[in-house]
Amino acid sequence: MLQEALTHLVSGIALRPEDVSVASRSTDRGEVLEVRVHPEDLGRVIGRSGRTAKSLRTVITSLADGRRVRVDVADTDR
């Protein structure tokens, strides 16, 4: 559910929603959601001083019902 919610939110922000992908993996410290977008949309998803990314993390954390979740915005150039 968290993966679909994050995909929906990021697709609404990105100019190329077809290039949005969210991968989920479990670690010993909780769930990690990794967001990948088109390189031109990276700045839009992160926002000024990381405000948009922080807001996305806040929404997803509130949906997680106490579970540990980390949201990472992946840099596609690496």
From TrEMBL:
<comment type="function">
    <text>A probable RNA-binding protein.</text>
</comment>
<dbReference type="Pfam" id="PF13083">
    <property type="entry name" value="KH_KhpA-B"/>
</dbReference>
<keyword id="KW-0694">RNA-binding</keyword>
<keyword id="KW-0963">Cytoplasm</keyword>
<dbReference type="GO" id="GO:0005737">
    <property type="term" value="C:cytoplasm"/>
</dbReference>
<dbReference type="GO" id="GO:0003723">
    <property type="term" value="F:RNA binding"/>
</dbReference>
<protein>
    <recommendedName>
        <fullName>RNA-binding protein KhpA</fullName>
    </recommendedName>
</protein>
<dbReference type="InterPro" id="IPR009019">
    <property type="entry name" value="KH_sf_prok-type"/>
</dbReference>
<comment type="similarity">
    <text>Belongs to the KhpA RNA-binding protein family.</text>
</comment>
<dbReference type="InterPro" id="IPR015946">
    <property type="entry name" value="KH_dom-like_a/b"/>
</dbReference>
<dbReference type="InterPro" id="IPR020627">
    <property type="entry name" value="KhpA"/>
</dbReference>
